[in-house]
Amino acid sequence: MKENIMLSVKNLSIQFGGLHAVENFNLSIRENELYGLIGPNGAGKTTIFNLLTGVYKPTSGTILLNGVNKINGKNTIEINKMGIARTFQNIRLFHKLTVHDNVKIALQNKYRYSTISGILRLPRYHRYEALMDEEAMALLKVFNLENDAMMKSANLPYGKQRKLEIARAIATNPKVLLLDEPLGALDLKLRKEMQTELKNIQQQLEITFVYVTHDQEEALTMSDVVVVMNNGQIQQIGSPIDIYNEPQNAFVADFIGESNIISGIMYKDYMVGFLGHDFICVDKGFACNEEVDVVIRPEDVKLLEVGNGRLEGVVESIIFKGVHYEMKVDSAGYSWIVHSTLPKDIGSLVGIDIDPNDIHIMKKMEI
Amino acid sequence: MDYFKLKRQKKARYNLSIYLMIIIAYAIIMILSAQGKISSLLNGLLVPFCTYSILAVSLNLVVGISGELSLGHAGFMCVGAFTSAVFTRYMKFLGVEGLYLFIIAILIGAITAGVAGLLIGIPVLRLKGDYLAIVTLAFGEIIKNIANAIYLGFDENGAHISLKNTMALGLSKNGFVVIKGAQGITGTPHYSSFTAGVILLIIVVTIILNLVNSRTGRNIKALRDNRIAAESVGISATKYKLIAFTIASSMAGVAGVLYAHNLTTLTALPKNFGYNMSITILVFVVLGGMGRIRGSIIAAVVLTLLPEMLRNLQDFRMLIYSIVLIVVMIFTSAPAMKQYIEVLKNKFPVLNALKTLGNKKVKKEGK
Asked: Taking chain A (367 residues) in consecutive chunks of 10 residues, what is each chunk's mean pLDDT?
């Protein structure tokens, strides 16, 4: 079942004035998977959502739902009926209505009855209202909101408002659910709870989730597939493990977890030079003497006794981060970020070395 | 779940209180008038009470429930008044009279005003906020001025319309001029009565309450609270705003019918169909509370009665009226006043007797 392509986006672009907010966006979204869309502010994540839901019309490109139904050019209401629902970065609830009514409104497409039967209270009204009441309540139970059903939605605490917005989107019975920073501004504990809860709900309801975040850790823990974006372009698509271990360029490496990025020269396959030393590495396929970016994760930098490493440096600062210490080590003008469980004194001289497996070579970024 | 029961009972109690209020007021006035204890001044105000209540309740659908500021409501009242009066006056000319004609006239007034609302609503409801208010104001004035300028006559060849004068109609000898330009319609049959007004008010209140508590009403409220979110769950903004506007216009038409058949001469003056009137209706709605049907009725009655009660103040009448209006507005919207009302309610449980009685019943059933 996992091969079914739910949503395919081809060459999608949009310009605002001269700004290319999204450029040549290509993505195939498989059924029942959780996609994490990640990138810095202004990367075009929300713009993608607005394009997918018809708020903006794309300058070029096509969006297909289920491989057949063309979405671009349709308006928000038609797109919702086709099976795409969304939430918003800044919560948009029907704030004067009760929690229960918020969900009930989203069920209105499923249980349609005319204005006339509403005014004249025809049997259809009573039947459908009862069905809606029950279904809305059942959905609120999934999100543990049943005890707040009669509360005005504006009076809910922030976390519950987020939940309610997701419940409302799910009530429209979507095939694809777009979540725009669903866990934004929640406290750490609630965020962790919601991460698991969202993943459970996704598996329970078998809906394809696409969600936007700028929290790297969240994207890695929740997603089946991570899409890294910058400046309106996709930088890399892959599983969380691939993205973390094999970043395709220095931007991805730096964005997904902190990294040391150093300019280097690839002398030949498996041999790179940076900071005045030659290192053996595991990458190949670059031109002779090509300029490259060398990416090294902070936790892969080994701090040794003086004389044991190929490089030497002075510890400049140290911050306690819970499990590990984050240190800045100055070595011949380059400031290394090092994560280690063993603290070193500020000002002490240390040796630095890196395992060949931990050296990632990337093509120079075009700036 | 007891929630639905609780919610329905709460709503039913509110609805019942409106009906009870109207019926009790009606009964008291009927008893007093049977004993001849009602002054001729008050007697002349009985039908206007109903007319203005219907107008206030219907405008509340647009301003309070749908959240759009409309300043052209008197225009739709004008449409209903003139079309229905043309019908009944011509029937009177043909020698047909009877209360059943009044029912047909009401339907004609409701339908023509509804159609006018629909036609004006299509272009106008694309605008929002202040722009909408100004444009509806303009349309209301246009309707009033057309009604002021039109000459309409009937003969065996059918209807003749002119904007110049009676002669330009070119009627045959058997012809009859119904609308005489600025002189309006004279000799409209006097069908309106307090009883008819109260029945119409109850029907209008029922229609609006049923509408508000149905799928259509919820969709309208959802659009008011958050248009973007409402569209994202598949609610068409144009459709539901238009439904609210059309129904409200139609109800204003009914008020117009009641108004027209309470007078012998119907003319379109700024006083009765101009923006003065529209703003007076808006004052009823704002004072009564946005979205509150009961409040609209009370405000309409009180503010119709007030200027008449102040009649012996002569020149200072409108000044005092304005001051009273300002004071009431400030008092009812002040948070301190609201708190004080809560304190009063706690001190004197009698004020809350009806409510608490109902609540106790619900609680017992819940247990």
From this structure: 77 86 89 90 88 89 83 85 90 92 92 90 91 92 89 91 93 92 84 87 88 85 90 90 85 84 86 86 83 87 84 89 88 87 87 87 72
Domain residue spans in chain B? 1-38, 48-274
Tokens, residue A315: 């510890």
Beta strand spans in chain A (E): 5-16, 19-30, 34-38, 60-65, 69-70, 84-86, 176-180, 208-213, 225-230, 233-238, 260-268, 271-274, 277-280, 290-296, 301-304, 311-320, 325-331, 334-340, 349-354, 360-363
A240 and A279 share one domain = no
Question: Which ranges of chain B have pLDDT less than 70?
Answer: 1-3, 349-367
**Structural domain contains residue A79:** yes
How confident is the model at residue A261, as a pLDDT? 86
Give the pLDDT of residue B358.
Answer: 43
Paired residues of B161 in beta bridges: B152
Does B214 touch chain A if contact means CB atoms closer than 8 Å? yes
Amino acid symbol at B260 = A
Within a domain: A355 = yes
Question: For residue B349, what pLDDT is reported?
Answer: 64
> Which whole-number Å values give the CA distances from B131 to B64, B124, B128, B135, B136, in the listed order?
17, 9, 6, 6, 9
SS3 state at A326: strand
Same-domain pairing of A232 and A290: no
B153, containing H or E segment: strand B151-155
Q: Is residue A250 part of a domain?
A: no
Where residue A101 sits, what CATH number does that domain have?
3.40.50.300
Among candidate residues B276, B325, B290, the one with its CA nearest the CA of residue B57:
B290
Q: Are both A27 and A159 inside the same structural domain?
A: yes
- Interface contact A104, partner B, CB < 8 A: yes
User: Which chain B residues touch A111 with a CB distance below 8 Å?
Assistant: 215
Q: Which residue has the tokens 């996709």?
A: A234
Q: What pLDDT score does B360 carry?
A: 44
Model's pTM, two decimal places?
0.86
Which residue range forms the structural domain that includes residue A74? 5-245
pLDDT in tens, B240-285: 999 999 999 999 999 999 999 999 899 988 888 988 899 999 999 9
Q: How many residues in total does chain B contain? A: 367
User: Which residue in this structure is represented by tokens 């500021």?
Assistant: B69
Nearest to A115 among B1, B3, B211 (CB): B211
Return the CATH number at A342: 2.40.50.140
Q: Which two tokens stand for residue B14?
A: 């509110």
- Residue A154 at interface with chain B, using a CB cutoff of 8 Å: no
Backbone φ and ψ for A224, nearest 5 degrees, come out as -80, -40
The number of folded domains in chain A is 2
Same domain, A192 and A277: no
**B230 contacts A172? CB cut-off 8 A:** no
Burial of A105 (0-12, 13-18, 19+ CB in 10 A): buried
Q: Which residues contact B131 (CB under 8 A, 6 or more apart)?
A: none
Residue B65: both structure tokens together? 């429930």
Residue A92: name the closest of A166, A30, A7, A190 by CA.
A166
Q: What is the pLDDT of residue B258?
A: 96
Flag if B235 and A121 touch (Cβ within 8 Å). no
Assess whether A231 and A267 both reside in one domain.
Answer: no
Q: Which element (helix H / strand E) includes B38?
A: none
Residue of B nearest to A52 (CA): B232
Q: What does the pLDDT look like over B79-118, one tens digit per residue?
A: 999 999 999 999 999 888 888 999 999 999 999 999 999 9
Whether residues B235 and A108 touch (CB distance < 8 A) is answered with yes
What integer pLDDT is reported at residue B66 of this predicted model? 93
Q: Are residues A184 and A300 in the same domain?
A: no
- Other residues' Cβ atoms within 10 Å of the Cβ of residue B186: 16
* Structural domain includes residue A252: no
